[in-house]
Amino acid sequence: MTGEDIGAELGERATLVQFSTAFCQPCRATRRILDEVAAMVPGVRHVEIDAESRLDLVRRFDIMRTPTVLILDDSGNIVKRASGQPRKADVIAALGAAATVDQSSDKSSHQSDTV
Protein backbone atom coordinates (compact mmCIF):
# COMPACT_ATOMS: atom_id res chain seq x y z
CA MET A 1 0.00 0.00 0.00
CA THR A 2 1.37 3.40 -0.88
CA GLY A 3 0.85 6.92 0.36
CA GLU A 4 -0.95 7.58 -2.90
CA ASP A 5 -3.40 4.73 -2.13
CA ILE A 6 -4.33 6.18 1.24
CA GLY A 7 -4.09 9.84 0.32
CA ALA A 8 -1.43 10.60 2.93
CA GLU A 9 2.26 10.16 3.52
CA LEU A 10 3.29 6.91 5.20
CA GLY A 11 4.76 7.08 8.69
CA GLU A 12 8.54 6.85 9.04
CA ARG A 13 8.21 3.76 11.24
CA ALA A 14 4.65 2.52 10.70
CA THR A 15 1.21 3.62 9.52
CA LEU A 16 -2.08 2.76 11.20
CA VAL A 17 -4.70 2.64 8.42
CA GLN A 18 -8.26 2.65 9.76
CA PHE A 19 -11.26 1.86 7.56
CA SER A 20 -14.38 3.50 9.01
CA THR A 21 -17.95 4.43 8.15
CA ALA A 22 -19.85 7.55 9.18
CA PHE A 23 -22.27 6.03 11.70
CA CYS A 24 -19.96 3.40 13.20
CA GLN A 25 -19.70 4.01 16.96
CA PRO A 26 -16.66 1.70 17.46
CA CYS A 27 -14.94 3.62 14.64
CA ARG A 28 -14.98 6.81 16.73
CA ALA A 29 -13.42 5.06 19.71
CA THR A 30 -10.86 3.40 17.43
CA ARG A 31 -9.97 6.81 15.96
CA ARG A 32 -9.24 8.16 19.47
CA ILE A 33 -7.12 5.13 20.39
CA LEU A 34 -5.08 5.22 17.17
CA ASP A 35 -4.61 9.00 17.38
CA GLU A 36 -3.30 8.59 20.94
CA VAL A 37 -0.90 5.83 19.92
CA ALA A 38 0.36 7.80 16.92
CA ALA A 39 0.99 10.79 19.20
CA MET A 40 2.89 8.60 21.70
CA VAL A 41 5.07 6.60 19.31
CA PRO A 42 7.57 8.53 17.17
CA GLY A 43 7.39 7.84 13.44
CA VAL A 44 3.86 6.40 13.54
CA ARG A 45 1.06 7.99 11.52
CA HIS A 46 -2.69 7.32 11.74
CA VAL A 47 -4.74 7.60 8.56
CA GLU A 48 -8.50 7.10 8.54
CA ILE A 49 -10.23 6.06 5.32
CA ASP A 50 -13.97 6.36 4.70
CA ALA A 51 -14.84 2.87 3.52
CA GLU A 52 -17.97 4.05 1.71
CA SER A 53 -16.04 6.49 -0.48
CA ARG A 54 -13.07 4.17 -1.11
CA LEU A 55 -14.74 0.95 -2.24
CA ASP A 56 -11.73 0.30 -4.46
CA LEU A 57 -9.53 -0.12 -1.36
CA VAL A 58 -12.25 -2.00 0.54
CA ARG A 59 -12.36 -4.59 -2.24
CA ARG A 60 -8.60 -4.66 -2.79
CA PHE A 61 -7.85 -5.32 0.89
CA ASP A 62 -10.93 -7.47 1.59
CA ILE A 63 -12.39 -5.17 4.28
CA MET A 64 -15.52 -6.91 5.58
CA ARG A 65 -16.48 -4.66 8.51
CA THR A 66 -15.63 -1.39 10.19
CA PRO A 67 -13.53 -0.55 11.94
CA THR A 68 -10.73 -2.53 10.33
CA VAL A 69 -7.16 -1.51 11.08
CA LEU A 70 -4.16 -2.36 8.91
CA ILE A 71 -0.70 -1.78 10.32
CA LEU A 72 1.82 -0.99 7.61
CA ASP A 73 5.57 -1.04 8.02
CA ASP A 74 7.66 1.86 6.74
CA SER A 75 7.57 0.41 3.21
CA GLY A 76 3.77 0.08 3.10
CA ASN A 77 3.64 -3.69 3.64
CA ILE A 78 0.70 -4.91 5.73
CA VAL A 79 2.18 -6.57 8.81
CA LYS A 80 -0.93 -6.76 11.01
CA ARG A 81 -4.67 -6.61 10.47
CA ALA A 82 -7.63 -6.50 12.86
CA SER A 83 -11.37 -5.87 12.81
CA GLY A 84 -13.30 -4.30 15.66
CA GLN A 85 -12.23 -1.80 18.29
CA PRO A 86 -8.65 -2.49 19.42
CA ARG A 87 -7.20 -1.96 22.88
CA LYS A 88 -4.41 0.62 23.08
CA ALA A 89 -1.99 -1.91 24.60
CA ASP A 90 -2.61 -4.32 21.71
CA VAL A 91 -1.93 -1.61 19.12
CA ILE A 92 1.34 -0.69 20.86
CA ALA A 93 2.35 -4.37 20.98
CA ALA A 94 1.49 -4.79 17.29
CA LEU A 95 3.68 -1.79 16.45
CA GLY A 96 6.53 -3.49 18.30
CA ALA A 97 5.93 -6.60 16.21
CA ALA A 98 5.84 -4.46 13.05
CA ALA A 99 9.26 -3.05 13.92
CA THR A 100 10.57 -6.59 14.40
CA VAL A 101 9.11 -7.66 11.06
CA ASP A 102 10.60 -4.55 9.45
CA GLN A 103 14.05 -5.69 10.53
CA SER A 104 13.60 -9.20 9.13
CA SER A 105 14.49 -10.04 5.56
CA ASP A 106 11.08 -11.52 4.67
CA LYS A 107 8.44 -8.91 5.48
CA SER A 108 5.67 -10.28 3.28
CA SER A 109 5.26 -13.58 5.12
CA HIS A 110 4.42 -11.94 8.45
CA GLN A 111 0.71 -11.15 8.57
CA SER A 112 -1.76 -11.69 11.38
CA ASP A 113 -5.48 -11.31 11.91
CA THR A 114 -5.22 -9.61 15.27
CA VAL A 115 -3.82 -6.35 16.56
Care to describe what's here?
This protein is α+β, with helices and mostly antiparallel strands and 115 residues long. The protein is 37% helix and 23% strand. It has a four-stranded mixed beta sheet with strand order 2-1-3-4, with helices on one face. The model is unreliable at 105-112 (pLDDT under 50).
Task: Summarize the helices and strands and which ones pair or pack.
Blueprint: H1 3-6, E1 14-20, H2 25-40, E2 44-50, H3 55-60, E3 68-73, E4 78-83, H4 88-103
Parallel strand pairs: 1-2
Antiparallel strand pairs: 1-3, 3-4
Task: Outline the biggest β-sheet.
Answer: 4 strands, mixed
Helix percent reads: 25-40%
| DSSP summary: helix tally | 4
The proportion of strand residues reads: 15-25%
The helix/strand series, from N terminus to C terminus, equals: HEHEHEEH
Label the structural class: alpha+beta
Oligomeric state of shown chains: single chain
Give the rounded overall mean pLDDT: 87
User: Span from first to last CA?
Assistant: 18 Å
Query: Which geometry do the CA atoms define?
Result: globular
Strand order of the largest sheet: 2-1-3-4
| Spans of at least 5 consecutive residues with low confidence | 105-112
Tell me the total number of β-strands. 4
Instruction: Work out the radius of gyration.
Output: 13 Å
